[in-house]
Hints:
By secondary structure, the protein is of the alpha/beta class. It has ten helices and six strands, in the order E-H-H-H-H-H-E-H-E-H-H-E-H-E-E-H. It folds into two domains: 3-14 and 98-233, Rossmann fold (3-Layer(aba) Sandwich); 16-96. Strand 2, helix 6 and strand 3 (146-148) form a beta-alpha-beta unit. Helix 3 (59-72) packs across helix 4. The chain starts with a strand and ends with a helix. It comes from Tetragenococcus solitarius.
Amino acid sequence: MQAIFFDVDDTLYDQLRPFKQAFEKHFDFNDVPLEPLYTTSRKLSDEVFHLVENGQMDIQEMHVYRIKQALAYFDKDISYKEAVMFQKDYENFQEAITPFPDVIDLLELCCQNKVAMGIITNGPLVHQKRKIEQLGIINWIPIENIIISSEVNVAKPDTRIFRLAESKVQSTNEQIYYVGDSFKNDIIGAKKAGWKTIWYNHRHHKKLPNTVNSDYTITSKNKLFETSRKIVLGT
């Protein structure tokens, strides 16, 4: 491994935690399973993200759509205003996010072994930058190696964003690993670019059939460092 790039949301930190805090503040739906609700909202967000990127959907409309539709799957109906207030607090609670412990250990290990690092993340520039700053990632990863889709006008799984990342670290595709939780955006995108992949599947998502295979799959939050350490050290 000469370089490793990371996704941000639910890869560097536990995105369910601020979602749970906002949900419990605004809704009294004790019969709604929280993690399936969260994963459903993420899926809905991914499905319409391209509309936000090309200006066909306002970011607030997307935020409202994903939580309203996710709750509708569980036979719950909320107003537009309730969805907006939920999103506002969801973002407020994200101001207290911290990296997964295994992520910190991996970042330190890569620094010690002179492995180049970077980030590729889909999302609005200001919003993603704020999360990256809160996580303190620039203590390990140079700002110039942080790629945010809305800033470069191309998003995962488009291979062009991975090619841009290659130019940042001056490595060929077969020497780069990508760590992410989304099979569609992270694993398929990186594999199509010729990268090696670590699917951080701690939410136990289903693999899309007849697509690609990840080089490594991790289904536990506390196994990322253990697996990645072997790759970094070549053991």
